Amino acid sequence: MRTGATPSGDETTHDAVTAALGRLDELTDAPLEHHVTVFDAIHEALQDRLADAED
């Protein structure tokens, strides 16, 4: 993770990434079939944040 001054909007992006990765906790006791759905949702959320960063 970067340190120091951050451009405006970075905190929101970091919160979104943290929330997306936090979904991994759902997998601890979940059946394997559920993992794919969660991975897909996380992947989509991270792609959205990357697309926002490119703008």
Order of helices and strands: HH
Low-confidence stretches: 1-7
The residue fraction in helices comes out at 55-70%
Beta-strand segment tally:
0
Radius of gyration: 13 Å
Kindly report the average pLDDT value. 83
- Cα distance, first to last residue? 20 Å
Strand content: under 5%
* Quaternary class: single chain
Which class of secondary structure composition applies to the elements? Answer: mainly alpha
Textual characterization of the structure:
There is one protein chain. The protein is built from two helices and no strands. The chain has 55 residues and is mainly α. It has a domain of 32 residues. α1 packs antiparallel against α2. The radius of gyration is 13 Å and the shape is elongated. The relative contact order is 0.16. The N terminus is likely disordered.
Summary, kept brief:
This protein has 55 residues and is mainly α.
Question: Topology, please?
Answer:
Elements: H1 10-22, H2 32-54
Helix pairs in contact: 1-2
Note the main attributes of this structure:
single chain, about 55 residues, 2 helices, about 0% strand
